[in-house]
Amino acid sequence: MFAERWIFDFIVYVFALSLVFALSDLLHANQRSKRLSYGLLLLVWVLQSFVFILQAASILPGMFPIDSLFIYSWVLVSFTLIMHVIYPMPLLFFLTNFVSFLVLMIHVFVIQNVSDGLQELYVSNLVLVHLSMAIAAYAAFSLSSIGTLLYLVHTNLLKKKSGRVLRCRCPA
Prior knowledge:
With 172 residues, this protein is mainly α. Helix content is 81%, strand content 0%. Keywords: Membrane, Transmembrane, Transmembrane helix.
């Protein structure tokens, strides 16, 4: 149990350091912060993959009461690493890692340290969180669809050189 907790704690600390450097790079573009953040996140991914492989091979049985949160965090970290190589966007890098960090924190510090009765309560609460997030995702999808539609209309009007180009009436 101590070895398992030590691995998870180490992953959380390295992940937190990666987030600190990602925030530093986001606030003031700095090549050293960007490299440190990416390197530490790569270390987190390697450690998560190692733990995931050990659990899948049943070398450490019973390590995860709920595997889905750990897998979700691992997938988000993988997505971030791939997207950073293809097209580096500091804001996407930071926000995706922050969400992944929160999911990992829930998995490590909330779910693992409870009895079976409380674990069922947490699972039911996670279902409520899941439904809330799904509704928020539908709302975000709707807003992005509307924005895309407005972009297409605006581009079409610009191509036609129509005088009815959509203008923002935002205070300057």
